[in-house]
Specification:
Elements: H1 16-32, E1 58-62, E2 67-69, E3 72-73, H2 79-87, E4 92-97, H3 103-112, E5 119-123
Parallel strand pairs: 1-4, 4-5
Antiparallel strand pairs: 1-2, 2-3
Length: about 120
């Protein structure tokens, strides 16, 4: 005669700890995220003949605390006019980034040069 043993009862799962973990993850991601916008830049590929100029390219060296145009220290104020005079219509400006330059600094410089009559290339 086989004894009838009832199957073990399953305990109901408690969702309280799962909800706590989800809340902590949500809180963590909300507090560590940054919602600041660096800025909007209109980027477009160069058209045919872009960069074709009889003038040599102008080199801009961007460092965290300085700016050099063709190896000469230059202020940010009036940068677009100075580069337009050096590069000319349809010329090329090459921007080289020094180590430690933040993205916001590059965005500020590119926003200053928005609508310039010359092509801009950022070198890695």
């Amino acid at each position: 005669m086989a004894s009838l043993v009832p199957p073990p009862r399953r305990r109901a799962l408690s969702l309280t700890s799962l909800i706590d973990v989800i809340f902590l993850l949500l809180l963590f991601f909300m507090l560590t995220s940054t919602f600041a916008r660096l800025g909007e830049l209109d980027l477009s590929p160069g058209g045919p003949g872009a960069g074709a100029s009889d003038r040599p390219p102008v080199f801009v060296q961007l460092a965290p605390d300085s700016l050099r145009v063709n190896a000469v220290e230059a202020p940010v104020a009036g940068l677009a006019a100075r580069l337009a005079a050096l590069a000319g219509e349809g010329g090329t400006v090459l921007i080289a980034l020094a180590e430690g330059v933040e993205a916001q600094r590059l965005v500020d410089i590119l926003a200053t040069l928005r609508g310039a009559p010359f092509g801009i290339r950022v070198l890695p």
